[in-house]
């Protein structure tokens, strides 16, 4: 069985994370609960940050907080010297509530509202990543009215689309995000921005996909964007100072995934950008990246309590847990695969094949299909691994099931980071009928 980060098995055969017995955590905080291994988050963050430092390259490592947004995780990100990327007023609010340094907040999104942009300008955040022509006009108007300067990047689609082990290079004009690099739209956006009095264009941003396992796709995207920077320098004497290459670094969900160390991704990116910048004789821009999944994904483990069993003779053995697609939509949405274990019985032989179902009213509400576990009893604690990214952040109240508690563990300490949602919490926005 693959254990992540600080996970160990205690002498009683229990799964421990961050030096804390998960069976005790389940007792204290209830289930379902997301347990975050904060030491692992820090290790990953340092892997990215230190590599840039070692190579003496100016950089910002911005945690893509859509992967998991909560006050306490912004605080850890701040402690590690990270920047953050937010994609909504809600994420911005949470980062500000955490006291995150405003100049290290970057704002993304393909349909930022006037209200959200005004909020970002009020907060004087570090950078807005401009996605479309509508936003250019809106931001021009807002900054002119307020006579306020704001650093901006142009988001481009470089025609490199990567997913897991494959990447394709295409004219990728048909994307809801950004300006296409090859059909002239990126140039048009550039011309609308580079002389603006209030919008201070720093460079470009691209994000080529998620759960990517090789570095070639990033290098190719970097090359295409740097080439465009060189073109703008030659034609308009514009010096880009920032190249943001987005996120997408892959992690290990199951034995089929073979991720690289953060240092490897970063090293290869730096090489590609340096090579291209040198070839065109342009200054090496600052390199910014936006890892989300690779910072929090395998740091998160979900604990569930097993309830009912159902045997479908000659077909399948179901066990059902006290959560499901309301706390992890990824299996239903993407056919995502997970590994798991019985946290209170880690050393027993894996004798039985189960399908782990959730408790939500939908047949597709399965967390893991076909997993070998020891004989499972009602009341056992099932741990599913690698649920730290896009689990809690995509959780819902379907069936009015409350969202789980989130607990941080580190060096034998544990603390609640997000309270479990109560029935009362879920009903608090409801208003009684008035007639
Ligand atoms: N930067 C930008 C502009 C992005 O759009 C994303 C993810 C990231 C950074 C972070 O990517 P990461 O390092 O986490 O791969 N819900 C899906 C993932 C959606 C990702 C959207 N954008 C999932 O559960 O797999």
TrEMBL record:
EC number(s) recorded for this UniProt protein: 4.1.1.20
GO biological process: lysine biosynthetic process via diaminopimelate
InterPro entries: Ala_racemase/Decarboxylase_C, DAP_deCOOHase_LysA, De-COase2_N, Orn/DAP/Arg_de-COase, PLP-binding_barrel
Coiled-coil features, chain-numbered ranges: none
Gene3D superfamilies from the UniProt entry: Alanine racemase, Lyase, Ornithine Decarboxylase, Chain A, domain 1
Pathway membership: Amino-acid biosynthesis; L-lysine biosynthesis via DAP pathway; L-lysine from DL-2,6-diaminopimelate: step 1/1
Assembly and oligomerization: Homodimer.
UniProt function note: Specifically catalyzes the decarboxylation of meso-diaminopimelate (meso-DAP) to L-lysine.
Protein name: Diaminopimelate decarboxylase
Species of the source: Candidatus Kurthia intestinigallinarum
